[in-house]
Specification:
The structure holds two protein chains of two kinds. By secondary structure, chain A is mainly α. Chain A is about 70% helix and about 0% strand. A two-stranded antiparallel ribbon of chain A has the order 1-2. Chain A is flat. By secondary structure, chain B is an alpha+beta fold. Chain B starts with a helix and ends with a helix. Mean pLDDT of chain B is about 85; it is low at about 1-10. The chains are: A mainly alpha, B alpha+beta.
């Protein structure tokens, strides 16, 4: 149950892109097609999970004064491994993602999870934290990718949906379209979570009111 | 005694030396893992590159039976059918919007463009990378070097630029034009 909560918070409540507004650069740069978005999302998901596990395993040996360089070394190692393996087995995706694959090293969200969670928690919760955050990132990338490719190129995953008569607005595959879309989605997510919090508060009030004076043990 | 050592140990925990060792060990471990993986994947990646190249040449000149390396010209291949050269496959390179664009161009012995394939590029996804689409490649088919000029409004004597990717269009065209010129020069010498 607790592991599920650790996993689930990355999907919605603390979604890296829509809620924390971290790692917006790749969310803008490689989301013009679905395949690239998904490839990037899954690569990040793998790196963040693997790095959380590594950081958690070594958390007692890393000197706190050099923890950031050590975490970055760990992230860089994992990213390089992903690059090497992808070049050998998925050369097409490797050439599509180009420079952005190497840039995973400096993603704020990965270092943030290492510092905030993996450095203080055992291996298994750290694994689920990375998996959840990674899944939230990959899901957000996929969502942006589907919308941008559908409207910007009239296709999903390279398969034409709208037919030849559709004249795609080029702005959707260009950077400004990505900014507009991401702004709107961030706004939508904020509204949604505000609404949810209000609901929760209303429910809590209804429950708490009659039993006032009783200590609630859960925070 | 033991206490004194422990006290020293605690101070020593943050000494430059200890910190240096910590960082060095992390990097050593990382380097070992990367080197190990590289030694495993490098041959596969190299093989994959050769496969890609053979497949790319076959895609460019589907009728060819063999691709014969040309003496004295690095990476030049003659696509032969029944002992007759029907096309030359040559490398082409140009500087695009996001760095080098490496291509493979198939040119007829008469110095007319057949088709090309982009091997590596860093162009904008969704814009510049459309240079690899058949729709753009067909604009080159059957053209000689002198008919390759990038314009916005098309005619049959030039190349219509890709929307939103003029720099890429120019770069690809320049690379291809140079390749065609080189082949034309080579075949002229041979005669």
């Amino acid at each position: 149950m607790k592991l599920w909560e650790i996993f689930y918070k990355g999907i919605f409540e603390q979604n890296p892109i829509f809620r924390l507004a971290l790692s917006l650069c790749p969310a803008l740069a490689v989301t013009s097609t679905v395949i690239n978005s998904l490839g990037m999302g899954l690569s990040v998901m793998f790196v963040i999970t693997a790095n959380n596990v590594v950081v958690s395993i070594f958390r007692h040996w890393v000197n706190p004064k050099v923890r950031v360089p050590v975490y970055i070394t760990s992230i860089a190692t994992i990213v390089t491994l992903v690059q090497l393996v992808m070049e050998a087995y998925l050369p097409r995706l490797y050439s599509e993602l180009g420079i952005y694959l190497a840039l995973i090293v400096v993603f704020a969200i990965i270092l943030a999870r290492a510092e905030v969670f993996a450095a203080k928690n055992p291996v298994i919760p750290s694994f689920f934290d990375g998996l959840g955050m990674g899944a939230g990132f990959a899901g957000a990338m996929l969502l942006i990718g589907v919308i941008r490719e559908l409207f910007g190129s009239g296709s999903i995953g390279g398969i034409q949906i709208f037919g030849a008569a559709y004249d795609p607005p080029l702005i959707m595959v260009l950077a400004p379209g990505g900014f507009l879309l991401m702004g709107l989605m961030l706004g939508a997510f904020n509204l949604l979570s505000e609404y949810q919090e209000k609901q929760k508060a209303a429910n809590n009030n209804a429950v708490v009111m009659p039993t006032i004076g009783v200590q609630r043990s859960d925070g | 005694m033991a206490e004194a050592v422990q006290g020293h140990g605690h101070d020593g925990q943050n000494s430059i030396f200890k910190i240096g060792i910590n960082l060095t060990l992390a990097c050593l471990l990382s380097g070992t893992i990367i080197a190990g993986t590289y030694s495993l994947t490098a041959p596969i990646a190299a093989q994959e590159r050769v496969n890609l190249k053979n497949r790319a040449m076959k895609e460019l000149v589907a009728e060819a039976q063999v691709f014969q390396p040309i003496q004295g010209k690095a990476d030049w291949y003659a696509a032969q059918k029944e002992g007759k050269t029907i096309a030359y496959v040559v490398p082409a390179e140009s500087k695009g919007y996001g760095g080098a664009i490496r291509m493979l161009a198939a040119v007829t012995p008469e110095g007319k463009m057949l088709d090309y394939k982009i091997l590596a590029h860093n162009e904008t996804p969704g814009l510049g990378d459309k240079a690899a689409d058949p729709k753009f490649r067909q604009r080159f088919a059957g053209k000689a070097a002198k008919d390759m000029e990038v314009v916005k409004v098309p005619s049959d004597k030039n190349i219509q630029a890709l929307t939103g990717a003029t720099i890429t269009s120019r770069a690809v065209t320049k690379g291809i034009r140079e390749a065609v010129e080189r082949v034309a020069e080579y075949t002229a010498q041979k005669k």
